[in-house]
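Before the break, one more example. Copy the sequence into your notebook; we will annotate it together after we see the structure.
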Amino acid sequence: MKKYILFLLSGMLMTSCIDTEVLPNDVVIGEDFWKTKDDVTSMVAAAYKEMSQAGVIERCIVWGDFRSDELEVNEIVFNDSKRTDLEEIKVGTMDYENQFSDWASLYSVINKCNIVLEKAPQVVSIDPSYTEGTLRTDESQMLALRALCYFYLVRAFRDVPVTDGAYFNSSQNFEIPQQAPLTVLDKCIEDLQKALQTPLSPDGYTDWRSVGYINRDAINAILADVYLWRASMTGNLDDYDKCVDYCDAVIESKKARYLSDNQASGPSIIGNIDHDGYPLYPGEYAYQYNFIQGNSMESIFELQLDGENISNSGLMHCYWNYDDKARTYGLMMAPASRFATAGDGNVFIKDKDYRWFESCFNVQSADATQLTVFKMVSPTGTDNTEASLKPVTAVITPGYTKIDQNWIVYRLTDVMLMKAEALVQLEASDANNLQRAFSIVNTVNKRSLAISSPTATDTLQFSSYNSKSAMEQLVLEERQRELCFEGKRWFDLMRYTYRSLRSGDANDQSALLHPDMLLSEMGGLSNMAKTSTILGNILGSDVQMSMESEPYLYFPVKQSEMKVNFLLKQNPAYEKMESIQKQ
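Here is what the structure looks like once it is written out:
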């Protein structure tokens, strides 16, 4: 049988035919495939499965969290290339050979989506059971999943190649140039808006598929996130307005579904779920439903890992067990200096916050320098109640195999806080927007307090945050409290930095600049990284001073990619590093 390439990524990913995975029994693009509805369904499922692979989830964590103040390299020294590469990322000496600059896993998902988009339409005329309506919802999912992948890539690399075409074999032309950030973001928006024309309904399923497939709510959430990032890069207030609109679409949908379900089944057995009009679990139950049970009422889109067909080894490697059953530790730990104590200057400011005890094992430790992540790791809750709050000191993990912990991409509180972030930036157009933003933050914060009747001293007070700068900082801090270790923090910090310091034109490719031009001709972009106060506080002054300009905030293009795609241009920060190393 003729062999076909399973995951030919966007051209530049292939270092040689030897590195290409050749699987003749999976995606066979030949006369015996693309004949039935089942063929399409299996390929759509394969795209979701590819998104759930360890390589993708590891990069969600490394690209979205690890570079921030939430995670450190495990101080236990062991000889491994991943640990070495993480250390180089953390101290600012990363180069273009770093394995976490490999984008292949995301482009593999993109190619799966492109194959479905190219091949599925022909099945409508062959199999009567595969209707035009089903085709449109399949296309909606693949357009949105592809856009999500490009959104991760543009936030990690800035300038990235974009292709709509599918790759089936190694004879195709793989040379594709990079595009500037706004071009990529606009392509994401175009695909997402098209996906929104024929989406799956959030009410279409009552099982895991209601949040395991990308439906209308998930598309709106991605659009809100894309517009928030775009607005932060450009300062365009219209983009903040659009972010608010898409957040509202998600929030109203979640409210409507909660009201419908509540009328059908009666009041919840876990108490009051209505928090200032938002359908949120009470704080003492939130971890159980969102992270242990999974696919919860608050979830919008999460990658499904059942532990049998696919195990969440990416999460395991990062947080509790790396590459050896005998190891009882992962690649990363949380800094005790940020998480061991609650109070001013720490991530959690109240010692009555359920989320503090659910963030890391052994909080309140007086002598630990690093803490093992609890969130998404512990298979059991803390059993904390208002009357009894205590840390979990013994590390409990799911083990080494059959890890069925889902990876949540979006959930309701994330979207609520996106809306709050956008409202702060719209303060000039409506003075009430600061109060609206505060109300959202306060709702998220209050639901997690182990205090049934909080007083003014227990809760956040608007009078302490009634300026734009103070409210912006509050939203940033609350996002960390709510979403720590979920792949969000570094991206949050980059948005904050973009707003605080105007960068270069997002219509330009930094990759096209010669490294010698970095400081002399890149305008506002030249001092963006070096003069950002918040990055200095988080990265440390030594690391910050080595990050001379905006390109240093992004990953380099892996050298192996550039050897096979001559249209790729290296991130100029790392071109400069290469020239220094050669001297």
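The mean pLDDT is 88. Strands lie at 72-73, 160-161, 178-179, 274-275, 278-279, 299-303, 332-335, 370-371, 407-411. Try to locate both features in your own notes.
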